[in-house]
Amino acid sequence: MLSRRGLLAGGALAATTALPLLRARAQGAGAGPIKIGVLNDQSGVYRDLSGPGSVVCVKQAVTDTKAAGRDVPVEVIFGDHQNKPDVGAALARQWLTRDGVDMIIDVPQSAVGLAVASVCKELDKVYINSASATADLTGSQCAPTTIHWTYDTWMLAHSTGAAMVKAGGESWYFITADYAFGHALERDTANFVTGAGGKVLGNVLAPLANTDFSSYLIQAQASGAKVIGLANAGADTVNSIKQAAEFGITGKGTKIAGLLVFITDVHALGLQAAQGLVVSNTFYWDHDERTRAFTKRVQPGFGDAKPGMSQAGCYGGTFHYLKAVAAMGVADAKKSGAATVAKMKSMPTDDDAFGAGSIREDGRALHPVYLYEVKKPPESKYPWDYYKLLATTPADQGFRPLKDGGCTLVKA
Fold first, then answer.
1. Residues 192 and 136 in one domain
2. Do 233 and 374 have their domain in common?
3. Which pLDDT score is estimated for 251?
4. Is the domain of 179 the same as that of 267?
5. Number of domains within the chain
């Protein structure tokens, strides 16, 4: 019997017509609607942190744009890249050349994200990345058509890695997802660890969507490292932490550093297993009145769950994109992705998920970075009340300095 994932694999290039269209239209200019493609993992390891929730948040941005008085006609579609760069690039190319898509957003899995960024650059279409973490998107692989929202490997390494060393975790061993994201996250974190006087004792590479981390955890424990750094995400992170607890690795002088942890991961683990984890996020649904107001608006699409930061990034990126489109006019925005991204960079950002911010010339969206600790079970007072704030890094300090990225768009 074919699984849903198998069916998707068999018809990857037909995904645009096979999947239902989610339309949000307003009356507007005669240039035709702006068409947004949400490209992500709808059925696999990154579904919970991205998937249908990202589509909900993009649709909410369209609704909020109309409520703000910006009359932009919009059509939203979505597709599943199956965490495969060739599938993601092929579907992006089909959308942009045949199906009239003007902007692609989300794209978890950094190898897929880099591939899609290349296609968008070639075809002069807007790419707003929210869920791929590699900082190379605004560094060596930057493009005039790319905006990188939400988080990246440099930011995660700087916030979580540096904090762990400062707290006494001076020796590290990495369990790393064996693709672009994992390699970049390990690289950036190792740089901060050694820069702060710590040592990296070794690493082991694990395949994506792995279910058994026992041998990797045993190797990490045998190294004698005080910190086991998990350079992975989604279900891989959840499985790593659960199995570390089962093997009794935690609580014996060894700390687990989840370098990219989403609120859905904490929910899957439960507070009993996740308590004490230190995590870096740029969005938390219960952070302030604006994040709670945003969450209330998207809640019907999430059921009993809450939005995570990559899904919120899809909202913030779409909302700002449509603000730029409204300022330019639909016809002009559809002509050139690079011109639209330039307009986005020229305008301050401001939305209920991330607050006020800006976009640098390398395409990096800047917003505050928050260091949270996962609450103990007795500290949680209501569903999804999971985080307590430890520290805030201002927007202009939370991401890699512009001069250090190697982006060719940056003027000397």
1. no
2. yes
3. 66
4. yes
5. 2
> In the prediction, which pLDDT does 17 show?
34
The reply to whether 19 and 84 lie within a common domain is yes
- Residue 124's domain is classified under what CATH number? 3.40.50.2300
- Express each pLDDT in 343-399 by its tens digit: 999 999 999 999 999 999 999 999 999 999 999 999 999 999 999 999 899 999 999
Q: What is the mean pLDDT of each run of 10 residues along the chain (412 residues)?
A: 35 37 38 94 94 98 98 97 97 98 97 97 98 96 98 94 88 96 94 94 95 96 94 93 87 84 95 89 98 98 98 98 98 98 98 98 97 94 96 94 96 80
pLDDT value for 14: 35
Q: State the pLDDT at residue 16.
A: 41
- Could you tell me if 188 and 169 are in contact, meaning their C-beta atoms sit under 8 angstroms apart? no
In a domain, 376, yes or no: yes
Whether 313 and 225 map to the same domain: the answer is no
The answer to whether position 238 is within a domain reads: yes
Single-letter code of the amino acid located at 367: H
Q: Contact, 328 vs 340, CB < 8 A?
A: yes
- Residues across the chain: 412
| Rounded Cα–Cα distance for residues 165 and 194 (Å) | 9
Instruction: Please indicate, yes or no, whether residues 266 and 241 belong to a single structural domain of this protein.
Output: yes
Report if residue 395 sits inside a domain.
Answer: no
**26 in Cβ contact with 72 (< 8 Å):** yes
Residue 124: domain span: 4-151+287-367
Identify whether 344 is part of a domain.
yes
Q: How far is the CA of 380 from the CAs of 144, 271, 283, 390, in angstroms?
A: 44, 9, 18, 16
Q: CA-based angle 262:144:321, to the nearest 5? A: 60
140 in the same domain as 55 = yes
